Amino acid sequence: LAEASAVMLQGFAGDATEASRSDQAAPCAAPPSPSSSTHGTFEAREHVSAAGRMAYMLFRPSGQVPGMPLVVMLHGCGQSPEDFACGTGMNALAEGMGFLVAYPRQTTEANQHQCWNWFRPSDQMRGAGEPALIAGLTQDIASSEQVDPARIYVAGLSAGGAQAAIMADAYPDIYAAVGVHSGIACGAASTMAGAL
Description:
Elements: H1 2-10, E1 41-49, E2 52-60, E3 70-74, H2 81-88, H3 90-97, E4 100-104, H4 129-144, E5 152-157, H5 159-170, E6 177-181, H6 192-195
Parallel strand pairs: 3-4, 3-5, 5-6
Antiparallel strand pairs: 1-2, 2-4
């Protein structure tokens, strides 16, 4: 997924060059500390809106400047933002190429398996449910971090891939491109049984 996202970003990253594999941290190295100046920051945040609350992790590269791209990464079932960051190596890629990464957090209260509820019709449309929360946190980050609005992307794995497809369908005005790995098309299921 990190390589696919790098290809997606390559044409949009401005002067940034792709980080070499030798410069990337080990896949599951400890995330950078919020006080680190050489490896960016990885911090917990929360989005609150009329649609509800959603916690997320935000990686900001050490050389952050206004106008950087943003990639929103949606984890799979049973994962956390920290797991997903670790497994994809996206933070190391973001540090090397110069972009921000947001990792929304699905809770066991919203889905007992920490899956995105992409199969529910109420979570497959603009302005409602999880899509509204994810789009809202994306817009908050874009505003507060001075992200280039033309270079905002969403990607996901499995249930996160299905949710990413929904985000691209429901919010084409926010997301310039989508990366889907092992997810299904938007609207392909309307029940949990149908999703399986």
